[in-house]
Design brief:
Elements lengths: L1 H21 L19 E9 L1 H4 L3 E5 L2 E5 L1 H16 E6 L14 E18 L1 E18 L5 E16 L13 H28 L40 E9 L5 E3 L3 E10 L5 E10 L1 H8 L6 E6 L4 E9 L7 E11 L7 E9 L6
Parallel strand pairs: 1-4, 1-5, 9-15
Antiparallel strand pairs: 2-3, 5-6, 6-7, 8-10, 10-13, 11-12, 11-14, 14-15
Length: 365
């Protein structure tokens, strides 16, 4: 009798359970995990045009003692396409990446150029296959309407110190893993792709029908957090391309005994006179050094590279003194030091090269 009562009670509970949920359209289960929801797509149709200089750009770096050619341009274009597919309604590219021709009838054409790329090792971290490096990527985006009129432009700046691991794949050191190097370039490109996307809502508002326009106005659309030189009241229909760099600079290399030859162990000084020749404040600028390893390492002994210059007001001129000391020099060589300026706003000024004779230091008796 007792078991029969239990049986009837159990069936009643099941009946209530199924009747309750059969009255619902669906049963919702709680979402597990901590993944963040994807960002909403922008209702925009985009055509990317990657400059040929960007697509063809490669950089040879040292990976576990072996030269590795980083396909920088290919990694950038691939990353911009991947991010665009996630954030835009449609995205396509012009040849050779894709088959598109110009901006979609209801979208934008975005021309992307690579002004500067630097990948400079800084320090080893214990083991020889792990080290830190500075990654600098300076790009420019120009936004065009379906008629080919340039509407705005924005600088895309990335400057980051990263830790890399490039272990040897064989004990004979004939190859090594370079996935972290490629991954670093893709991470930088992803940051810049998202920075570029962040300015598009402002561009669409500025060019929306019914918005007052100022003919031939110049707009520099900067990502949030950077200096925007455009006036809020202006909604430009065209942009004048910048043809001159934002800064000019002069350089001079001095040695301690002023005999015009650098000697092992000798103190050296690099003087850089930098002038902001643009009409806008440059929030930050850096000095980068490349060239003969003994020369570059001589400056790295004293200061981390790239060397910050701080902000530069319009028309401001500043002289920076960078001190270094050469390491041991075994034989006489012809050295070269290439100096470049990385700027957060405007076009970079290119590089200066200084050629100098390097020789062993005086022998001590």
């Amino acid at each position: 009798m007792c078991s029969k009562s239990h049986f009837l009670f159990f069936n009643s509970v099941l009946a209530v359970f199924f009747l309750t949920f059969s009255a619902c359209d669906k049963v919702s289960l709680p979402r597990l995990g901590f993944e963040s929801p994807p960002e909403p797509r922008l209702p925009l149709n985009i055509t990317y045009a990657f400059s040929s200089s960007l697509l063809q750009y490669t950089l040879t770096v040292d990976a576990c003692g072996l030269p590795y050619s980083v396909p920088v341009g290919n990694l950038i274009s691939q990353t911009f396409m991947d991010v665009g597919m996630e954030r835009f309604q449609t995205v396509q590219a012009e040849p050779p990446v894709g088959q598109a021709k110009g901006a979609p009838p209801d979208g934008y054409r975005i021309l992307l150029t690579l002004n500067q790329f630097a990948f400079d090792p800084v320090t080893k971290m214990g083991q020889e296959d792990r080290y830190q490096a500075f990654v600098d990527m300076n790009m420019q985006a120009v936004y065009e309407d379906p008629q080919g009129t340039a509407l705005a432009q924005s600088p895309l700046i990335y400057h980051q110190k990263v830790s890399l691991w490039t272990p040897e794949l064989t004990s004979q050191s004939t190859s090594c893993s370079t996935t972290q190097i490629d991954g670093t370039v893709k991470s930088a490109a992803e940051v810049l792709a998202k920075d570029m996307i962040s300015v598009l809502p402002r561009l669409t508002q500025a060019t929306a029908p019914g918005t007052p326009t100022t003919p031939n106005a110049q707009t520099n659309m900067s990502p949030p957090g950077t200096t925007n030189t455009a006036q809020p009241s202006q909604a430009p229909t065209a942009v004048k391309a910048e043809v001159s760099p934002a800064v000019q600079f002069r350089t001079k290399l001095l040695d301690a005994n002023r005999n015009l030859a650098l000697e092992g162990g000798e103190a050296i000084i690099l003087l850089i006179e930098t002038t902001n020749v643009s009409d806008a404040t440059i929030p930050s600028a850096y000095v980068e050094l490349r060239g003969t390893p003994v020369l570059v390492e001589g400056f790295k002994r004293v200061a981390p590279i790239p060397i910050p210059l701080g902000s530069l007001k319009p028309g401001e001129k500043r002289t920076t003194e960078i001190r270094g000391r050469l390491g041991q020099v075994i034989e006489r060589i012809q050295g070269e030091l290439t100096i470049g300026i990385i700027v957060s706003e405007g076009l970079p000024p290119g590089t200066h090269s200084i050629r100098v004779e390097i020789q062993p230091g005086p022998t001590r008796k």
